[in-house]
Amino acid sequence: MKYFGGCDVGSTYTKAVILDENGKIAASTIQRSRMNASESSQKAMEDCISQVPELKSAKDLSYIIGTGYGRNRVPFADENVSEISCHAMGVHIVDPSVKAVIDIGGQDVKGIAVAPDGTVKNFAMNDKCAAGTGRFYEAMARSFEMSLEEFSSLSLKAKTAIPITAQCTVFAESEVIALVGEGKAPEEIAAGIQMAVARRCFVMAKKAGAVNSITLTGGCAKNEGLKKAIEKVLKIKVTELSEDPQLMGALGAAEFARRKGGARA
Question: 218 vs 262, which has greater pLDDT?
């Protein structure tokens, strides 16, 4: 059996996936990224390799592709592919019916239109401001003295949303702290935050060609409050994937590796 690897080195998390020659996921991992991207990729892939008895090291993989923020720092990769292409391919092999994706990463937000063959039809990216990204949500959760998991569901308890006017992460955090200090209901503040992020996703969704539905990838795709807010603001359905949405970049990279490595063999 031949195996193929994909390693997605993000600014906050590093993900790795190993596929067998039939395209089945043999191993996967999600780890907090370290300051050294090369070390992050090595630790993630080592974890994956330990899950497959036939493999002893990255050298045993037939082909490996690196992607993500630190894709140029994956020392064992045969090739690098952009995370936009990898997210599109990852989503495509999980659910070929998906045509539009919003990838909310640690430091940027991308809208991706997926072609029928899993390639990128069109895309738009907001990488000039951290508002609405994983870093933004970490700051918001910190303001509430909660974990990200706790914060993601807090807004679901709200009957109304308190508008958050600040567009900058720093100013938004200050605004939230002030509202908490005024005794405003935490769930209503959280609902306002989710609505603000959903509105920022509106343009990305339109550029991705979303009409009736859209799929979220990245760690923020697990944010239940955000999914509900996006459905309300965009008035479209958020389609959930059968595989972990945070793994889509690594999965797409592994699939590219399987196709390219198989062709080379």
Answer: 218
On whether the 98-240 domain is CATH 3.40.1390.10, my answer is no
Q: Is 178 exposed, middle or buried (0-12, 13-18, 19+ CB in 10 A)?
A: exposed
How far is residue 249's CA from residue 253's CA, in Å, rounded to a whole number? 6
φ, ψ of residue 48 in degrees (nearest 5): -65, -45
CATH no. of 3-89+246-264: 3.30.420.40
Q: Would you list the domain boundaries of the chain?
A: 3-89+246-264, 98-240
Is the pLDDT at 128 greater than 70? The verdict is no
Distance CA 91, CA 5 (A): 17
Phi, psi (5° rounding) for residue 212? -105, -25
Between 149 and 119, the higher pLDDT residue: 119
Total residue length of the chain: 265
Q: Do 98-240 and 3-89+246-264 have the same topology in CATH?
A: yes
C-alpha to C-alpha distance for 245 and 90, rounded to whole angstroms: 9
Residue 34 has pLDDT above 90, yes or no: yes
